[in-house]
Amino acid sequence: MEVHWPRISEIYQKGIETGLATFETVVPGWEVWNKSHIMCCRFVTILDKEVTGWVALSAVSDRCCYGGVAEVSVYVDPAHQGSGTGSALLAEAIHESEKHGIWTLQAGIFSENIPSIKLHQKHGFRIVGVREKLGKLDNTWKDVVLMERRSKRVGIE
């Protein structure tokens, strides 16, 4: 993943600039990003030798009871949105997460980011609720739709 970091960070920056993707206002450096994401389940899509999108998981807690729960982040370069890139990334993250014992994936999505909500729903995520005015971005309160996908294969015993 580190080899692709310049392009990953560029796509992340484009997401930040939309005001629809994250409360972050600055892309962290590689070391910070790397430390905050689980080593498995990090993927990029490449078209014509260029990274077009990425997906990665973050632990939701360091408590052992939440060891199978992770938050998913998926970002697609604006030039490739609507091309199936996000769907391919999310599908691969789901598949790999289950191979690594992750039973629940969650996502927090700004309520106005309808394409992202629909993408997650397409892959079996359900809306758990809306966290109203969870935080401010550029002095504007943002509602965050909490979504989750419970595996039907892992952690069901």
Q: Tell me the overall shape.
A: globular
Ranges where pLDDT stays below 50 over 5 or more residues in a row are none
Structural class, judged by helices and strands?
alpha+beta
The succession of helices and strands, N to C, reads: HHEEEHEHEE
Supply the CATH class.
Alpha Beta
CA-based gyration radius: 15 Å
Percent helix, as a range, is 25-40%
Please tell me the total number of domains.
Answer: 1
Number of helices: 4
The major sheet is characterized as: 6 strands, mixed
CATH architecture: 3-Layer(aba) Sandwich
Question: CATH H level: which superfamily?
Answer: Gcn5-related N-acetyltransferase (GNAT)
Strand order of the largest sheet: 1-2-3-4-6-5
Query: N-to-C terminal Cα separation, in Å?
Result: 34 Å
Strand percentage, roughly?
25-35%
Task: Fill in the CATH topology.
Answer: Aminopeptidase
Number of strands: 6
List strands and helices in order, with pairings.
Layout: H1 5-18, H2 30-36, E1 43-47, E2 50-59, E3 69-76, H3 85-99, E4 104-110, H4 114-122, E5 126-137, E6 140-150
Parallel strand pairs: 3-4
Antiparallel strand pairs: 1-2, 2-3, 4-6, 5-6
